[in-house]
Amino acid sequence: MPIWRQWNLISNFSRRDLKAKFNGTLLGWAWSLVVPLATLAIYTLVFSVVFRMVPPPMGNGNDGVFVVWLFCGLVLWSYFSSCVNGGIGALLGSGPLLQKIYFPAYAPVLGAGLAVGIQSLIELGILAIVLVILLNVSWTWLLVPFVLALFVIFTGSVATIVAVMNVYYRDLAHLVSVALQLLFYLTPIIYNPDIVPESWNGIPLRAIVELSPLSQFVGLFRAVIYDLTAGDLGSWVAVAIWTLVALGGAMLVMKRRGGDLSEAL
Amino acid sequence: MTDIAIKVDHLSKTFRLQTERRNSIKEMFVRGKATGVHDFHALRDVSFEVPRGSTFGLVGHNGSGKSTLLKILAGVYRPSAGQVLVDGRVSALLELGAGFHGELTGRENVYLNGAILGLSKKQIDRSIDQIIDFAGIGEFIDSPVKVYSSGMYVRLGFSVAVTLDPEILIVDEIIAVGDEEFQRKCFDHLFELRRRGTTIVLVTHSLTLAAELCDQGIWLDHGRPQALGDVADVIDGYLLDVNARESASRAEAEAAGGEQVGAGAVVAPPVPRQGSGEIRMTKVTLHDAAGAEVGFVTPGEECTVRVHYRSAQSLREVGFGLAFIHESGITVAGPNSMQDDRRYDIEPGEGFVDFYSDSLPLQPGAFNISTAIVDKGHTYDYSDRETELRVRADHAVREPGLTRMLGRWSAEPSTPVRGRA
């Protein structure tokens, strides 16, 4: 069954996740803003005030503002990591259900991703408002939806692969939390990639950092929304290839491993 | 192909059981490939077809593969070999309220469950009032389901599954939920769905229900089909098998237990009894038409209840009484020898008194027998429901009730039964 036929199911799963998450909390929906803004404040304090990180200048020629520059990267990062973690939990959580009724395994994973995405959209809105206030706006913003669309497909695919494989190999969840930490520091979110040494003990550190898929996405997103350039063609191609690879991998995993999940859960 | 809703062709399902599961990468590296793997054949070479609009029953012992078969039909499991074609939108009732989330309200859960069953929001919008009405949970529909009673929970689950107009309904042993009123509503609704042409596949241990509701059926035994076809034949075959097994196991138990009784024969009753005790009932045995002792009796057949006693004295004009009590506590009958002017003069020692019926009027079920040995207002011995009486049919019984009322029907309409009224 094509994926858009499952839209109703996916959106219902995400609604369930959102409601279950905020029911019974005093602040309710406000938490979805408090947590990322607190993270933003902490990182800004540590890296801008303590470590004196200097952000690149903005696209409109003004001096860079670290907190805004950081926010651009952090929005994408928190979406990615929450999707992967949430997807693992969502699929395991639907285990009892999957043993009773058939539905595709990616539905709860993408449902969790959609729930995260709604929160990320709110963050994006705040980011956009701040940039407008700073008068850092240009036609390149029209490219933002394309970057985000590719990023959503990429993230959804990775989350599906990890969630499905985690059912068969349960220690993947532990591995993922380590890998996400590594990936966080491997991606230029809190630092400028220019400060990474070309090579360290013979390891081409700069190339590793720049070629990792998340760096490509973060770099391209910052280019169109913060630097106000169209991004170089190489980045666009790289991002498209990463997305296709991830999507292909997810489809393969669903086909090969998705059908027998109910027995392994 | 359009008149066949479900076609199962040489279906087999094998589960790989591992004595130790390797589902962590470390274990795979450290201990190598899993050992002690063996296959469990849940279904072997099952084939049948279910015509559109008919009702199909699955019967068999626990662990015979019925639920596995239902899960394959519902698409939850994939067949290991063979083919399954299911043509139509399936609604599976494998567990009521399986998809409910405690924090969501009943109404929100209806939408979630409907989405899981593959419906669009519009389709659910159309049915929501009917669902709420059918579940009968009133204003609770807008409370989180975590505050529901278990009855409300399953009622809402059942309503969702059956009201969303399924083309093929797959029902596992779940009808035994809710109160009496809701159960009746469920049955009525199943009949209504059947009348409207919904294809139903049903697992039930209530053979009466299966006989009433199903057109065709299959009897599975350890994953192998034993009988397929008209539901009455399938059930008869299954019942004969169950009865044969029960007789065998009872005979075994009796053989094992008999020695003990012989060795430590006690005069005192095994459980405290009422009565003065000059004479005691020692045991009650059941006998069939040929006089052989049996473990259970069959409706409509000849049957003898033999009350064995041991007396310490000579007693005159002793009456015997029996009471047949259903497991629900209802006393169905209480034949009494004095009613028939039978009183016995008893000599010291052992003996027995028989109660014979040429056509046992009880319906299948679990009964107990109480015995009384009395003399004009004086009770020598009274045993309260000490003896079990199992009534087993060798065919499906379609009449409700605890007893079969004997009588005759008119031969023609508007004609009294000959010689009466």
From TrEMBL, chain B:
What keywords would UniProt list here?
ATP-binding, Nucleotide-binding, Transport
Question: Which GO molecular function terms does the record list?
Answer: ATP binding
Q: Does the keyword Transport apply?
A: yes
Q: Where is the secretion signal located?
A: none
Top-rank taxon = Bacteria
Q: Which InterPro entries match?
A: AAA+_ATPase, ABC_transporter-like_ATP-bd, ABC_transpr_TagH-like, Bact_Polysacc_Export_ATP-bd, P-loop_NTPase, Wzt_C
Q: Which Pfam families match?
A: ABC_tran (PF00005), Wzt_C (PF14524)
Cell cycle as a keyword of this entry, yes or no, is: no
Record-annotated membrane-spanning stretches: none
Q: Which residues form the ABC transporter domain?
A: 6-247
The family line of this record is: Belongs to the ABC transporter superfamily.
- Give the protein's recorded name: ABC transporter ATP-binding protein
The protein's organism comes out as Occultella gossypii
